[in-house]
Amino acid sequence: MLAVNERLPYLRGKTSKLSSRPGCYIMKNEGGKIIYIGKAKNLKNRVSSYFRKDADHLPKVAKMVSNVYDYDFIITDSEFEALVLECSLIKQYKPKYNILLKDDKGYSYIKITQGDFPRLQCALQKYDDGARYIGPYTSSYAVKQAVNEANRVFRLPDCHKKFPEDFGKGRPCLNFHINKCMGVCRGCISKEEYAGIIDSAIDLIVNGSEASVEQMTEDMLKAAENLEFEKAARLRDMINALSKTTMEQKIIDEDRKDCDVIAAAVMNENACISVVMYRGGRLFDKASFFMKEQDNTAEMREEFIMQYYSVRDYVPKNIFVDMELEDAENITQFLKMRCEHAVSIACPKRGEMLKLVELSRSNASEYLSINVGRTGKEIVALDELAKALDLQKPPRLIECYDISNLGNTNVVAGMVVFENGRPNKKLYRKFAVKDVIGQDDYACMREVVKRRFEHYKNGDEAFAFKPDLILLDGGTGHVNTIAPLLKEMEIDIPLYGLVKDSKHRTRAIATGGSEISLSQRSAGFHLITEIQDEVHRFAITFQRSKRKAAYGLRLTEVKGIGEAKAKLILKNFKTKEALKAASVEQLMQAAKVNEETAIQLKEIIGEM
Predict the structure, then answer these.
(1) Which residues of the chain have pLDDT under 70?
(2) In this structure, are residues 436 and 443 in contact, taking their beta carbons and an 8 Å threshold?
(3) Is residue 337, in this structure, part of any structural domain at all?
(4) What's the CATH number where 32 sits?
(5) Is 457 a domain residue?
(6) Could you give the 3-state DSSP secondary structure of residue 578?
(7) Looking at the structure, do residues 526 and 404 belong to the same domain, yes or no?
(8) Does 216 lie in the same domain as 93?
(9) Do 163 and 199 fall within a single domain?
(10) Which of 463, 454, 474, 471 is nearest to 404 (CA)?
């Protein structure tokens, strides 16, 4: 019986924070050696299946799980990309359990049958039948996907007819008529042409699409020159289908097909830098590194690049980073001397390369989130907010203020605090505006913020914390009112406003002179929306409680109505409108009083 893996609680905890995106997972033993590599459409669901309590694994899987000390992962953009990456990683690392299991029935192969018109098929065993086998692969589902995709793109037959024996026997099937099969059964395709198509299909599965497209394009042009228009049309259709299939993959242009994409994620005293590597225009591998955050995050990246490539055998011609490097010129010169070819370091601002940088940042964020107990989305949101507001580092503590009033009375304010992207309700504070008479949001906000930081300066323990960012529920006017106050009090904290649209929804960030817009689909925008909604909820809830307390105090002016009966009345009539609409009989029943007392209550309520 296998020993229970004592690391399972840690592995379950780590997996609970894992991304649900597609990618590859890499199991490691206690010595850090890779023992198994797999792919998943949903990383969190797949990896969780290994570490579930009372999981009923097959013996080979149970043995692998018993030796897992930790695991790594690489996020991809699609399941197909994860499949290609999995194959690449297995070839590169040759993990123990991948290799040991290669002949088991749980492994899958791509089979190319014998004959003049071979077929692409999935196989669970490797037989001595003269066929060609490619593999093994860890996932039978992934192999089926790859074979089905190749058959679809190249319109290969999947019927049971035998060629050339069945040429011209019967009509072509439905797949031919709906353009899903090239119609080999008609006898119009030579075995030489068919062999070339099979080679392109195999090349697509093993090496990717680039070589296949180049060869097919060359063959199409030759066919057109030789007036073989039907053949040229078939090749054209295959090229178009292949281009559509690979569109979702991260394909780098010809001049940048070998490159490294470097991005960092930072939270408090922890940082992670991820290097996503592309070779031959396709995702090849990823490496992630933890380090302590430095004051200048650009310097952190520069130091990392110098150390990382000092021990690498290969330096690509193009390196893309997520932040401008001040010393980029000297670094590129160093790398050029080391690898003896030109090296470019760039920070993309738009287009496909920016998307690659964002993918690398996602890898870094997800990796860091596991280490610091936060989700990758929270880390990305704080990072996006820091970049949008030009902060030196992502804010740990964010304070936000909102004023709430009903007419000229019971003016209050709420202060909410978000710590590392999450609300920290222990640090929330309530303020009753004392000095401002009437509706003056600017004056009320000034009073509240002034009182908050007077408490801070006087050493009040309830206000001893200092935020990294202050947000006001309001626009330019609010920022221009509070900014001089903070300067006067010598409080050096970034200050911004949160602007709402006509439907009371978050629209932009006010700077005091202009506005900063964030994409409404970005994690940073969702964070500021959550903060603004939360401070509004907190302030208005406090204002309502103050209003109820005031109503209750007026009700106790009636003889025979104490605090208990006043609360009972307010409980039965929860709004001011409901209270005013209550009849004498309803008040008698709710407060359990006689008619005379109920009449007096009705008079008091009418004055409120």
Answers:
(1) 1-2, 58-60, 98-108, 136-143, 145, 204-216, 234-235, 237-256, 292-296, 406-409, 438, 547-557, 563, 570, 573-577, 579, 606-608
(2) yes
(3) yes
(4) 3.40.1440.10
(5) yes
(6) helix
(7) yes
(8) no
(9) yes
(10) 474
Burial class of residue 105 in the structure, from the number of CB atoms within 10 Å of its CB (0-12 exposed, 13-18 middle, 19+ buried): exposed
Residue found by looking up tokens 């304070």 in the block? 399
| Same domain assignment for residues 418 and 533 | yes
Residue 473 φ then ψ, to 5°: -75, 90
Are 524 and 384 in contact by the 8 Å Cβ rule? The answer is yes
| Residue 390 resides in a domain | no
Domain range for 46 is 8-100
pLDDT digits (tens, 9 = 90+) for 337-354: 888 889 999 999 888 889
pLDDT at residue 281, rounded to an integer:
74
CATH number at residue 320: 3.30.420.340
Instruction: Give the integer Cα–Cα distance in Å for 197 and 219.
Output: 10
HSE-up (13 A, CA, CB side) for residue 500: 14
- Average pLDDT of the chain is 81
Query: Strand locations in 420-477, DSSP E?
Result: 422-423, 429-432, 469-473
The verdict on residue 53 lying in a domain is yes
477 vs 492: CA distance, rounded Å: 19
pLDDT tens, position by position, 56-77? 776 667 888 999 999 999 999 8
Q: Do 511 and 525 meet the contact criterion of CB atoms below 8 Å apart? A: no
